[in-house]
């Protein structure tokens, strides 16, 4: 029972731990042992095909991995928005996972943020249930160590929360014309954009930065971040072609009947997923029991529920 409780509340524990890691001042030099032994394979062509292993982990991703990217089965939602899924297998509790990926072109769809609370700002109340019929994709955004999102948030061109500080933090910015850009580390603390920002949010830890480079804190133990903890994961990134990628993992044991159980990947493994999908920039979002996604395609509405309500959501609508 104790183990079960720890798993169910893993997202909250990781959120608090990463807040400390995000705010810590890292030493420029430290011993960097190898990552915990693990491998990732994807179901493709009727067999499991290995595409990543910790003892050969890339320091930089220069483009998508043909094995993982080629295994995704893509479905069209609308012009500028597709989604796909694949089956993964890894070590331990990651022995059966479902990977769901949304791929969107910000030149053809509109991104915005939504928030909801009860009793002022005391209790978060956002979930995918708030997505009206015009929303084609809804997903929680940011990290939620407490009732409010961590770090900088801009909603409807108005600053909702000031920036947070942390070298592993990154902000995703949507400008008034719909373009997406990224601001990494503590750059926001030295001065944030004062005009032209329609929506923005900050999250941590950074998974990929500076054209596909894995941050050194994710390359081995001892860097101030837990590289062995496993959880259901959610991340957002952007490819070199400008496409925004949102990736969610769900436990796929028992034929998907237990997909709410927060078993899954380590943070370095999720960084590998984003790199293998072709992202050059990527950040982790709050997963665990917070992770949730809704997709409306012509075949119907697909929902991956979270077990708690959160303070912030990202919405995608057609232009």
Explain the overall architecture:
With 319 residues, this protein is mainly beta. Strands 1, 2, 3, 4, 5, 15, 16, 17 and 18 form a nine-stranded antiparallel β-sheet that branches. β1 and β2 form a beta hairpin. The N terminus is likely disordered. The protein has four helices and 21 strands.
Topology readout:
Blueprint: H1 2-8, H2 10-23, E1 39-44, E2 47-53, H3 66-71, E3 73-78, E4 81-89, E5 97-104, E6 109-114, E7 117-118, E8 123-124, E9 135-140, E10 153-155, E11 158-161, E12 170-175, E13 180-184, E14 197-203, E15 206-208, E16 234-239, E17 244-251, H4 267-276, E18 279-285, E19 293-297, E20 300-304, E21 313-318
Antiparallel strand pairs: 1-2, 1-4, 3-4, 4-5, 5-17, 6-21, 7-8, 9-19, 9-21, 10-11, 10-14, 12-13, 12-14, 15-18, 16-17, 16-18, 19-20
Number of domains: 1
**Overall form:** globular
Unreliable stretches: 1-32
Order of helices and strands: HHEEHEEEEEEEEEEEEEEEHEEEE
- Bin the strand percentage: 35-45%
| Spatial separation of the terminal alpha carbons | 48 Å
The number of helical runs is 4
Main β-sheet, in a few words?
Answer: 9 strands, antiparallel
Quickly give the structural class. Answer: mainly beta
Percentage of helical residues? 10-25%
Average pLDDT number? 89
**Would you report the number of β strands?**
21
The value of Rg in angstroms is 18 Å
């Amino acid at each position: 029972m104790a183990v079960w409780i720890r798993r169910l509340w893993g997202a909250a524990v990781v959120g608090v731990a990463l807040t400390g890691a995000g705010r810590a001042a890292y030493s420029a030099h430290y011993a960097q042992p190898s990552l915990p032994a693990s491998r990732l394979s994807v179901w493709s062509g009727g067999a499991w095909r290995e595409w990543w292993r910790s003892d050969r982990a890339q320091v930089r991703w220069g483009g998508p991995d043909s094995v993982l990217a080629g295994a995704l089965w893509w479905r069209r939602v609308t012009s500028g928005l597709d989604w796909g899924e694949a089956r993964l297998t890894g070590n331990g509790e990651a022995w059966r996972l479902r990977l769901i990926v949304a791929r969107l072109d910000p030149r053809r769809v509109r991104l915005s943020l939504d928030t909801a609370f009860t009793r002022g700002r005391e209790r978060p109340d956002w979930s995918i249930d708030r997505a009206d019929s015009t929303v084609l994709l809804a997903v929680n955004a940011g990290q939620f160590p407490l009732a409010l999102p961590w770090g900088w948030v801009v909603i409807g061109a108005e600053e909702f929360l000031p920036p947070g500080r942390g070298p592993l933090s990154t902000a995703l910015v949507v400008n008034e014309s719909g373009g997406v850009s990224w601001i990494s580390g503590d750059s926001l603390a030295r001065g944030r954009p004062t005009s032209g920002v329609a929506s923005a949010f900050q999250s941590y830890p950074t998974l990929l930065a500076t054209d596909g480079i894995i941050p050194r804190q994710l390359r081995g133990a001892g860097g101030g971040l837990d590289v062995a903890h496993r959880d259901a994961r959610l991340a957002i990134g952007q490819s070199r072609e400008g496409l925004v990628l949102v990736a969610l993992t769900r436990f796929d044991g028992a034929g998907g009947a237990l997909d709410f159980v927060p078993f899954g990947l380590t943070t370095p493994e999720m960084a590998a997923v984003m790199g293998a999908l072709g992202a050059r920039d990527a950040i982790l979002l709050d997963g665990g029991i917070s992770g949730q996604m809704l997709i409306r395609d012509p075949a119907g509405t697909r929902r991956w529920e979270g077990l708690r309500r959160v303070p912030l959501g990202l919405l995608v609508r057609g232009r």
